[in-house]
Amino acid sequence: MWEYSEKVKEHFYNPRNAGAVADANAVGEVGSISCGDALRLTLKVDPDSERITEAGFQTFGCGSAIASSSALTEIVRGLTLDEALKVSNQDIADFLEGLPPEKMHCSVMGREALAAAVANYRGEVWEDDHEEGDLVCKCFAVDAVMIENVVRENRLSSVEEVTNYTKAGGSCGACHEGIEDILTRVMAERGEAFVPAGKAAAKPGKPAGMTNLERIRLIEKTIEELRPQLQADHGDIELVDIDGKTIYVRMIGACNGCQLAGATLGGVQQRLVEVLGEFVRVVPATPAQAYATRS
Amino acid sequence: MEPIYLDNNATTQVDPQVVDTMLPFFTEQFGNPSSMHSFGDRVGRAIKQARAQVQALLGAEHDSEIIFTSCGTESDSTAILSALRAQPERREIITTVVEHPAVLTLCEQLEKDGYTVHRLEVDSRGRLNLDAYRALLSERTAIVSVMWANNESGTIFPVERMAQMAAEAGVMFHTDAVQAVGRLPIKLRETAIDMLSLSGHKLHAPKGVGVLYLRRGTRFRPLLRGGHQERGRRAGTENTAAIVALGKAAELAMEHMDEENTRVRALRDRLEDGILAQVPYAFVTGDLDSRLPNTASIAFEYIEGEAILLLLNKAGIAASSGSACTSGSLEPSHVMRAMGIPYTAAHGTVRFSLSRYNTAEEIERVIEAVPPIMANLRRLSPYWGADGPVTEPEKAFAPTYA
Question: I need a labelling partner for A65 at 20 to 30 A (CA). Which of A124, B80, B110, B220 fits?
């Protein structure tokens, strides 16, 4: 079963503003192929103030589609059309205290019905600007159409790149096979073959079985080697303390207060991760730590 | 009020007698049946008995034709992959568009690996065209895999006849019978079926145990190799408690076979009649002349299945739906679409599947609860007017589809 919030259930069991508004002067009708949901939103707009005085919905759809429609009517009542157009699908989801990733499209449908109704009132033609596909990454709710487009537009060729561009596949990793299928298909369009990365080889030269002392010396030595670069920019760095995976340093001279200090720390961290063959974090030492080491 | 369980095609309650039978195998009967001592020997004998009980339920000629597996899906994969490995020169598979994902998804993967998959279509009642089937059988066919009964509509396929046709063409025949075993009398020794899959939890045994029936003489290649369990055809230490439980469940299924086809069938018919008499714009899907006695698949037009299930659940009634929303996929049930049922009805399909545990009183409660739920949802539907569908619903409401 879906994990629906109490608010979703409440709006599904007791929907607000169900039914069409009599003498409505703005109507939006949209559907989402996924789930086969469809929604008709009817609004009564005061012509002088352009304020929405009444809103009603008719929905063919699942629990969260009905709840999203109900939430939408509650949100937009009393807003001007311009204010209403600023309502995002995330606002609808937030109003309902969240939706499952597979159900986010229900809130998108609500947002689209609203845009369609406003366009209808203004005598414009609303055009849908996105297409939905099968949900591939459930952790970050990324669908196949989005991945396909991103792979095509940016000529991506690896799962890692897809993750960097879309977040898809960046968490549990269960969808990597699906992402590889999309890469294979889209890369074939441009005449390339998808080559899987294979299992990442262990980093060579990882010092195995270092003692604590050896590890500390290696960290010290690595930081020493980085100092000349910083000194060239009239800065400096000093090792303050090591606490497991966290390495405390102090930025000195021009580095202290420099806006690029964060980037510099990132570079130091990257170098240490490579040398140690393990993940470590490099962070600025607190003044108390810095003082303790000097006294 | 006690909730009413009408989702027995999804899974069934483990029979209390089955639970009693299996419990000692978690405690004092913990031995490994392969061991050369009395601890193992006792468990080995219990498995032998379970094998005989399953053999009886299937009407198999030999008990060695019964291979215990972990589930129906494993049995399906083992059967199909075995046929392909045993006959590498044969590169085609025949199946149907309405199979369970355990077969369909495997076939999709095999297509990517270069095999050709023929999927037989069904008509509006879910029936196959046997002439089209006959035309596909050839020396290129490695295996035919056709379900005995459909999990969604309950439609029964003529697998005995189809197996005979395959045999005459020299082609192996497998059937996924997880919905049929225990609900329909089966005598495999009188058929030409080479392989059959069953699943314990569909017939009041626990989850995590299944069977692959393998006719003696059928060429076979195991999925799992390793120890000598199941005569080397399915390696891995036996799930002893579940196997013993499945044996007991098979015995009970034999005892209750008549009841399934008389009392349970009558309850199902009463449920359908009671609902259809009160709810307009609803119809039964599947082959009314040939279907499981426990399954009622009803399409409610102009409303959506997940919303129906949520309201049924609130009323203490457990059922399931072919709507896309309940599965998180794009399309409504592939079975309903294959029968050409329009989207506005396919999304509103609800499956009520009964078991011998259901009572007439429960069915009356469901008949009472269903009509107001459908009326409530239709009041919200853009396809519904004051007291019926709007005139020309598809034209009156034609949203812009994203």
Answer: A124
